[in-house]
Amino acid sequence: MDTAILKDMINGLEASLIDLNEKRDIFIKAKGLNEETEKLRAEVSKVHFELENEKDKLKGMNEEKNQAMATVTSSMARRMNDVLPSGSAIVEIKDDGSLFIGWFTKTAKVPYSGLSGGEQAAFDPALCKALGGSILAVEAAEIDGPHLTDALRKYEAANIQVIVSSCHAPEEVPENWNTVLL
After folding, report:
1. Summary mean pLDDT of the chain
2. Which helix H or strand E contains 17, and what residues bound it?
């Protein structure tokens, strides 16, 4: 055999050896990547499990919060109803977390912003009482005589101190009240 042919064969084998070594290195890296991938998958699985546990905890906490808020809002509505001359107060926490305060009148559920001036004049003292007020100052010019009488009866039954200012004379005044006419 000719030395040139042998040199060519040696060069070809060396090139093949280099190529095989590069492929071996790639396979080794791939094996390492596979192992790393499996580790990361295990970590993702663990994090997913922890996330589900945290979601369950959050759900429980939200249920507790909703129950506590329902207790507070129903208590507020009850206290307001002690003073409202008619209908019933509505205090609700909506699904989006916002607060709805309104009045269920004879025919409809009306948000506070939709109440007339007279309705707001009757509603505001009820809200003050629900928020812990012990002395109510009521500007009742918007409340007509019959409704003012109903409001005064409710104030009397609620056993709270009330100062009422109105241009309408009520049909009757609770007997132990002081009346000042100007």
Report:
1. 86
2. helix 3-81
CA–CA separation, 159 vs 95, rounded Å? Answer: 35
Contacts for 103 with CB less than 8 Å, ≥ 6 apart: 84, 87, 88, 89, 90, 109, 110, 112, 115, 119, 123
Strand-pair partners of 123: none
d(CA 29, CA 179): 95
Question: What is the pTM for the complete model shown?
Answer: 0.61
d(CA 79, CA 154): 11
Whole-angstrom Cα distance, residue 91 to residue 129?
14
The structure tokens listed for 97 are: 């977390």
- Provide CB contacts within 8 A for 81, sequence distance 6+: 88, 89, 126
Q: Is residue 169 over pLDDT 80?
A: no
Enumerate residues 6+ apart whose C-beta is below 8 A from 155: 83, 125, 136, 138, 162, 164, 174
**CB–CB of 169/157 below 8 Å?**
no
For residue range 62-115, what is the model confidence (pLDDT) as tens digits?
889 888 888 999 999 999 998 888 889 999 988 788 889 999 987 889 999 999
The DSSP output letter for 141 is T
Residue 152 has a pLDDT of: 84
The DSSP bridge partners found for residue 111 are 102
Asked whether 82 and 157 are in contact (CB, 8 A), the reply is yes
